[in-house]
Amino acid sequence: MNIFVGSLPFSIEEADLRESFEVYGAVDSVKIITDKFTGRSKGFGFVEMPNDAEAQKAIDELNGATVQGRAIVVNKSEPKPEGERRSFNNNRGGDSRGGYGNSRGGNDRGGNRGGY
Predict the structure, then answer these.
(1) How far is 43 from 94, CA to CA, in rounded Å?
(2) Which spans in the chain are helix H?
(3) pLDDT tens by residue, 58-72
(4) CB count, 10 Å around CB of 8?
(5) Which of 36, 39, 54, 114 is 20 to 30 A from residue 88's alpha carbon, by CA?
(6) β-strands 73-76, 41-48: how paired?
(7) CB–CB of 48/1 below 8 Å?
(8) Do the beta carbons of residue 74 and residue 63 sit within 8 Å?
(9) At what angle do helices 14-22 and 52-62 cross, to 10 degrees?
(10) pTM of the entire structure?
(11) What is the Cα–Cα distance from 93 to 35, expressed in whole angstroms?
(12) What is the pLDDT of residues 10-50, one digit of tens each?
């Protein structure tokens, strides 16, 4: 079972998270999601456990538990249906590029050509 773990302290390590879940049974993998630019934890992750009964017990007992002063959220991770994945073009209508573009008119690419 794939388990979502949220509201994690930013300082928690994957080994610490693994330890918390191994109390309930075997753990296949642990992944804390990090920002790809800064490498800093985003405060959530996933734990994969092969035995569903052990995984459910871990969910029941760890959901709402306090880890390093924060109450964590633990529940079964459900994959998003294909239609709900975010697209980078979702909130853009037509060809609205915004910014400088044609709103200033002409070919002015900076510089002060108008009033010498």
Answers:
(1) 35
(2) 14-22, 52-62
(3) 999 999 999 999 999
(4) 21
(5) 39
(6) unpaired
(7) yes
(8) yes
(9) 110
(10) 0.70
(11) 28
(12) 999 999 999 999 999 999 999 999 999 999 999 999 999 99
